Amino acid sequence: MNVYEAVESRRAVRAFSDEPVPVEILERVLSAAARAPSSGNLQPWHVYVVTGGPLAELKRRATDRALAGDPGDEREYPMYPADLTSPYLDRFTAAAAQRYATLGIERDDPERPKKIAALNAGAFGAPVVLFCYLDRAMGPGQWGDAGMYLQTVMLLLRAEGLHSCPQVMWTMFRKTVTQAVGADDGRALFCGVAVGFEKEGVPHLRTGRADMAETVSFIGV
Ligand SMILES: Cc1cc2nc3c(=O)[nH]c(=O)nc-3n(C[C@H](O)[C@H](O)[C@H](O)COP(=O)(O)O)c2cc1C
User: Fold this and answer.
1) Quick one: which of 19, 77, 131, 169 is 20 to 30 A from 175 by CA?
2) What distance in Å separates the CA atoms of residue 111 and residue 8, rounded to the nearest whole number?
3) The predicted structure's pLDDT at residue 12
4) Does residue 176 have its Cβ closer than 6 Å to ligand 1?
5) Domain range holding 146?
């Protein structure tokens, strides 16, 4: 698989099979992903790879919280700016409208937030979740580094025939996650990434993208 194919075929998969992921593949991917760039080569991320019994227990605890309507732990960083305006708000609304429809959660379902949180808490059935933490001392530049790192991980997973779903929703239950992985208090959870083989036969929608003219300006060409 070349890089274009990896980029093109990566998408947020929300239905995984329970086929286990060999640990050697995870080691190969995470070892290669360490080549991701970071400003000043700080490599500010720390990843906890959780699978097997500990992941089952974490999913159970997070799902219980979600189904109980738990609003989640106090956020350490806002998922989105409070005053999201156009064009971002339009893109967000369009994506939100279609995101969970294929999984059978309708827009007007009063239980929608609870169901979405519960689906996320089960990591969509993925047998592995990577939890990416950053040292609390890190600033916006290093959060950007962590994004580049995770995209590198997700593209390498494609080369191994695996899929992924980045999940900021885990930060809702960050205290439960931190207890499960034993992260020290100096680290803040950025997001989880569900990893596994895609479950076959589950319909999904291809998300759209803004026209290049909206997001790219060529100067001097
Ligand atoms: C940092 C980050 C956090 C995300 N958090 C979630 C999440 O909590 N739950 C979810 O279902 N999707 C999550 N997504 C996936 C996005 O919704 C998805 O990437 C976007 O809609 C584009 O779709 P695509 O990745 O399938 O192309 C997240 C993506 C990123 C980059």
Assistant:
1) 19
2) 33
3) 96
4) no
5) 3-215
